[in-house]
Amino acid sequence: MVNFTVEDQEGNRQDCEAPDDMGFNLMEILKAYEYPILATCGGMALCGTCHIEILEGKDELGEATDPELDQLENLPEYFPTSRLACQIRIGDVLDGSVIKLRGEDQ
């Protein structure tokens, strides 16, 4: 299991746990926790509605892919630590991270 923390738009934090052996991405886990993630493209890095900011642990997650960066750069707010939750696979690299929800529908 992987443990990480999610901060919502109001600054409230919740510890979350996710299985790291089922191939889920972070967007799917956030939806399972009932966070308001639209994910209108279904996780294809085409809509940006699963936009998050990595507050802690960004170095372990690696760099965003070119298609991910293309989508992030089109968002109204874009931060150097912005990522799309659909492009982050649940794994050990996520353990201990703190993420902030930034998606459009927040």
UniProtKB/TrEMBL annotation:
Gene3D superfamilies xrefs: 3.10.20.30
Name under which the protein is recorded: Ferredoxin, 2Fe-2S
Keywords: 2Fe-2S, Iron, Iron-sulfur, Metal-binding
Cofactors that this protein relies on: [2Fe-2S] cluster
SUPFAM superfamilies (UniProt xref): 2Fe-2S ferredoxin-like
Keyword field contains Metal-binding: yes
Family to which the UniProt record says this protein belongs: Belongs to the adrenodoxin/putidaredoxin family.
Domain 2Fe-2S ferredoxin-type: 1-105
Alphabetized GO MF terms: 2 iron, 2 sulfur cluster binding; electron transfer activity; metal ion binding
PANTHER family reported in the protein's UniProt record: FERREDOXIN-2, MITOCHONDRIAL, FERREDOXIN/ADRENODOXIN
CDD domains documented for this protein: fer2
One Pfam family, short name: Fer2
Any one GO BP annotation for this protein: P450-containing electron transport chain
